[in-house]
Amino acid sequence: MNPIRHALAALARYGIFVALVVEFALFSIWSPNFFSTGNQLNVLHQNAPILVLAIGMTFVILTAGIDLSVGSVVALTAVGAAQLAVLDWEPIGLRVAVAVIGGALLGAICGMVNGLVITKVRIPPFVATLAMMLVAKGAVLIATDARPISQGLPDLFERLGQGGGASALIHVSAMLALFVVAWVVLRFTAFGKHVYAVGNNPEAAHLCGIRVPRVLVAVYLGCGLLAGIGGTMLATQLDSGDPKLGELMELDAIAAVVVGGTSLMGGRGSIWGTLAGGLLIAYLKNYLTLEGLPFFWQKVVIGVALILAAFLDRFRSE
């Protein structure tokens, strides 16, 4: 490997962490409000749902797959959780708990369907999850008549997402705990090794005795479960089950994973790289907002970041 390719490979492996530190330092210098505790907690709180989605997307992309349905699943599960929360029965605490768990399980069901369609019907992940995206979005719009569920939600449901610093800490702590769990699974379990093996070479993994379809179903089920958790988080943050939630969130999740160094070809990447990639994008969007730049510039910047990440991944693969 010549020096240029060696440098690019090193940049692709460790550059995201260096970039995150440099970005944080520069934004703290350029914007007086960026470094404040309130702003940092706000950034983490607002982006917790996206980062949770990115965990599931990391597992999917590590298997050389893709899940385009997570944004629509977020909307479906947010509405489902809100619908369960408005049911009139006591105690309220148990009702809210059922709503949160129900939203997560609804997401898991969607993910399991994706996995079964991909492995049993042998439809490519792009097509299968695109179909689920359309079905979930259409179903939630029909069920709600395209209107948000916001009336009758208990105060406890709202306080979970809009209770000031306490609710922010709950969401951020839950998000970080999920990253730790994902890291343990990928790093220390046989299932984690199987995920990497399937992404590297599914045929070789099968010859080694790995049940590839079972791994794929589990990965997509987990991705759906995490989308359900993210959707429930978002519903509590907005105190509403809006069928229009989650639009383009799948792209934000994919961006976090790819910018974080996970290869779209599968078999290579890390969960901490995903966290760093997600934070890099989140801080960049926050800085642009603090500086008063129009919202659409955020999308342009994310698109450029994706191109650069794909460019680095290409050289690392060669």
Overview features:
single chain; 318 residues; mainly alpha; ABC transporter involved in vitamin B12 uptake, BtuC; 13 helices
Averaged pLDDT, please? 91
Strand content: under 5%
- Low-confidence segments, given as residue ranges, are none
What is the helix tally? Answer: 13
**Overall outline:** globular
Question: How far do the termini sit from each other?
Answer: 9 Å
Q: How many E-type strands?
A: 0
CATH architecture: Orthogonal Bundle
H/E element sequence: HHHHHHHHHHHHH
Description:
The protein has 318 residues and is an all-alpha fold. The protein has one domain (3-317): Orthogonal Bundle (ABC transporter involved in vitamin B12 uptake, BtuC), CATH 1.10.3470. The protein has 13 helices and no strands. α2 crosses α12, α4 runs antiparallel to α10 and α8 crosses α10. The mean pLDDT is 91.
